[in-house]
Amino acid sequence: MPTYTPPARDLDFVLHDLLKVGSLDIPGYDELDRDTTRAILDESGKLAAGVLAPLNQAGDAVGCTFENGVVRTPPGFADAYARMREGGWMGLDADPEYGGQGMPYLMNCATGEMFLSANMAFNTYQGLTHAAYSTIHAHGTDAQKTTWLPNMISGQWSGTMNLTEPQCGTDLGLIRTRAEPAGDGSYRITGQKIWISAGEHDLTENIVHLVLARIPGAPEGTRGLSLFIVPKFLLDDDGRPGPRNAVSCGGVEHKMGFHGNATCVINHDGATGYLLGEENAGMRAMFTMMNEARIGVGLQGVAQAAVAYENAAAFARDRLQGRALAGAAAPERPADPIIVHPDVRRNLMDQKAFVEGGRAFLLWGASLIDRAHRGRDADAEGLVSLLTPVIKGFLTDKGFETTVLAQQTFGGAGFVRETGVEQFVRDARITMIYEGTNGVQALDLVGRKLGAGGGKYIMAYFELIKTWCREAAGDPDFDAAFVEPLKTASKQLQQAGMYFMQQGATAPENALAGSYDFLHMMGHVSVGFMWAQMAQAARAALAAGEGDRAFYEAKVATGRYYMARQLPMVATHLARIETGAEPVMALDAESF
Amino acid sequence: MPTYTPPARDLDFVLHDLLKVGSLDIPGYDELDRDTTRAILDESGKLAAGVLAPLNQAGDAVGCTFENGVVRTPPGFADAYARMREGGWMGLDADPEYGGQGMPYLMNCATGEMFLSANMAFNTYQGLTHAAYSTIHAHGTDAQKTTWLPNMISGQWSGTMNLTEPQCGTDLGLIRTRAEPAGDGSYRITGQKIWISAGEHDLTENIVHLVLARIPGAPEGTRGLSLFIVPKFLLDDDGRPGPRNAVSCGGVEHKMGFHGNATCVINHDGATGYLLGEENAGMRAMFTMMNEARIGVGLQGVAQAAVAYENAAAFARDRLQGRALAGAAAPERPADPIIVHPDVRRNLMDQKAFVEGGRAFLLWGASLIDRAHRGRDADAEGLVSLLTPVIKGFLTDKGFETTVLAQQTFGGAGFVRETGVEQFVRDARITMIYEGTNGVQALDLVGRKLGAGGGKYIMAYFELIKTWCREAAGDPDFDAAFVEPLKTASKQLQQAGMYFMQQGATAPENALAGSYDFLHMMGHVSVGFMWAQMAQAARAALAAGEGDRAFYEAKVATGRYYMARQLPMVATHLARIETGAEPVMALDAESF
């Protein structure tokens, strides 16, 4: 059975040494001193490691069952859910006006990483609730907020997003689900939704579905979509769950992984729904929560990588095979632990450098969300909108890749279910697909985000890196290992952006054919930027003679590794991009 | 349910347009005219698509069951096995003296790709039998060969390789299984073997285990290992299976994939075994079959990629989402097929370029095996020994990666089990691990194969490419697209090799820290070499006005794609290698 050790020290480092959250000018951040955040991280870490992690493997083996319209979650999930509820974790960053704790979104991500590492399938029930909460909070009337939010924040009720239908996933303009006015202000919703995560289960007394549907006479395509609140149980006059609504689960999917989360067919058969926001403005309402939801999926990628890496490192220290090149490292034992072998190291360093760098990138993004929302900062909003597809796409691609590397560390033991590492691979795989496939993220990045605000956000991003490089430079060793590689990679990213701009008007296919490579370039530059700053912070701590030297030295060494061995990928992506669309589009569809 | 269409036309192209097998000076190749190979490919393709493929998904869902020491294979496997036997496919390249058909190994690989694409788990029962056959054929006495081979070739009996034990996988020197002389020339074998593929099943009337064990008093480490024939049933005086031997199955593993193949714990409790080859020469005997076995695993990587790609391409032509950038491609339908989108194309082109290029590389390797063995050509033996870790490591890494890309083409439909594409991912994953993990392949390549024969085989490899480049050059368009990129990549590979040579004596860790990158560099250069030659052949056919223009044009376009968008990876790998071991080895084991 895999282990899980909450990375409290690493999270602490990112929050305070890298982001310096206590001194950031963001409402609510003044409360985030080291002791406070540590207490929150310790408490949530205990729950993650002690309660959620032990349920993960059985949750995968048993999965969710479906019988006579009823979905049962795996053994232990209901009790663990009650524990999460009692701890108030579900409303950690929710609006205090409706019973939330009002903490920054950043802390939701820091604690969320641990919950997700411990048990991703379990944690997604509340993740979906959070997404639904945010949407109602942003677009609901006061009455709707009072009706629905308190019980969602407390975890008594859960939430879902009902978007996909059999004929449409990415292309929501094809949605057919109908919403007929009932004459009393409500609507009758009819249609089938599929792949609805947490769509039906036995964890809460009600489920609040948010459903995209089309009102008769609405324009075609996405401009004719409206969003509706469709509860599993209609509320009685006291606001308590009453009669069953005409919404039901038609079955659960059998999937590669993520078995503990019920992925449901949801049938709406004239179900009662309440319009959320304006008519035909459903897509706009969806977009509100999309940045957060996508960052949340990026977090899942980091979290699966983190727990897989922890187990791979432990295995590599424990498993005895062969001898170190320079002579036996453990002469008293029949063989040396495999961590002595350079290629095993290479594998572990790739994992470690991604996990720690990806975590930093994610939390930087989360702090920008807080700056945008709590600080009402439009520039931060623009910057995080630009970064969101990178956070989602890059961190889930690399997160999955890292679980595969961790599995490889285990050799044959990684392929058998017993060790649990193969589950991380299967669970991580969904993160590259849902909440917009990573190809869609790349399209969003290059097709919409790069040019947003006349390109001012991407310019601000480059300016940020340039300014940092200028200010950080001075020490030859640090410059060679960190500043120069970051400068080079950043310039290559700019060059790719220029190429797209030049092509944009006349040959837009040249931009889109390179979109995936651009997303990965920007991911590497961003994580490289994090590593450069983390190394700077660690060097400063070392120079000041602070605390745990080995910890800071490892940060610098891991950062050097990332810059030396991962950042060169940026050049390859640029070379690919500059070949344009011709090689990509040369064949007829029939030639595939 | 996934489809499978045998790639007969593509195999035909590789055999005759690329390798020109009919004119190669290798014994037996003179029979390989286009009509003969086509008849063989058509016949085996029919069996693969019609009999094996329909059993693949159920084989995964049901898997192998273990009860009271008995292993049952999935429904339909036994009947299909009988069909394979009747068709004589198991002895296709086996020695006619013992009932084989005596075809080249090349044809075993060409037909094997189809069997493996259709049903990898099923086909591995006979794959292991083939490995055991080869070992007995190379090292057995005449009496042993007469006793064991005919029934293995006919498929009446199967074979296994018993190497791994709980405390040792890669490091076979730690093997503890004992072989005590029984006094009658036989031995009593005692010990536990694990992860034995096809170790126990209900497909054949006997199972011939080849077991690595240690005779009392033997030297420590691998130099004290001997190889034994240990049948499940001892033979009676007529050579028919008689009393049960003291070898039994202790259980089957629960795995990520590859469920249709029984991965067994095999307990030897004083089982009767017969020495195969010399005492303490067990490792040498194992090495004999290792090239073939590793090439066979590389083939599994290509085969899983091929069938996954076929299904992804079909899905992309069928699934309607969004509109083409230049305007609707299918205005009469609600949306365009997703194959119009540049990023979907990028994904499919990566798949296609790998599948066709990887297939060519594999079959080139197989033809070198024939040249080495049938032609008794030591230079070919040296070259294919050098290429073997690349064929195994690169083709399985990229094969797995390609199944993941194919799954991504499917979006959400790729994560549900119904479409079958996620099974290819889970099945392909084992190929990176067994028969020596890919890290061990890289170690073999850099630590042993590069320097073999004083470096003459790697020099011959470079010379081959250089000569081809010189002779192929002349047409500016072809040079720019193929010759120059291949030259550049080959020079970068040489530069990496030089770096290793310079470091070898003083700082061998610098070589081993870059071994994995070197393996991938060499994989790309080799597949690039194949594409350059395939494009040359296709251009020649086009110039001659031969046959199907669209087919040849697609070959040239796909080759251009590989050279433009995959080959640039070689530079990144070189950059990594030249950072040396320092970043890789910087941390203490405790810092992970």
UniProtKB/TrEMBL annotation, chains A, B:
InterPro entries: Acyl-CoA_dh-like_C_dom, Acyl-CoA_Oxase/DH_mid-dom, Acyl-CoA_Oxase/DH_mid-dom_sf, AcylCo_DH-like_C, AcylCo_DH/oxidase_C, AcylCoA_DH/ox_N, AcylCoA_DH/ox_N_sf, AcylCoA_DH/oxidase_NM_dom_sf. Residues 463-588 form the Acetyl-CoA dehydrogenase-like C-terminal domain. Pfam families: Acyl-CoA_dh_1, Acyl-CoA_dh_C, Acyl-CoA_dh_M, Acyl-CoA_dh_N. This is 3-methylmercaptopropionyl-CoA dehydrogenase. Involved in the assimilation of dimethylsulphoniopropionate (DMSP), an important compound in the fixation of carbon in marine phytoplankton, by mediating the conversion of 3-(methylthio)propanoyl-CoA (MMPA-CoA) to 3-(methylthio)acryloyl-CoA (MTA-CoA). It comes from the Bacteria. Keywords: FAD, Flavoprotein, Oxidoreductase. Residues 161-266 form the Acyl-CoA oxidase/dehydrogenase middle domain. It catalyses: 3-(methylsulfanyl)propanoyl-CoA + oxidized [electron-transfer flavoprotein] + H(+) = 3-(methylsulfanyl)acryloyl-CoA + reduced [electron-transfer flavoprotein]. Residues 78-156 form the Acyl-CoA dehydrogenase/oxidase N-terminal domain. Residues 280-445 form the Acyl-CoA dehydrogenase/oxidase C-terminal domain. GO terms for molecular function: flavin adenine dinucleotide binding; oxidoreductase activity, acting on the CH-CH group of donors. Belongs to the acyl-CoA dehydrogenase family. Its EC number is 1.3.99.41. Its cofactor is FAD.
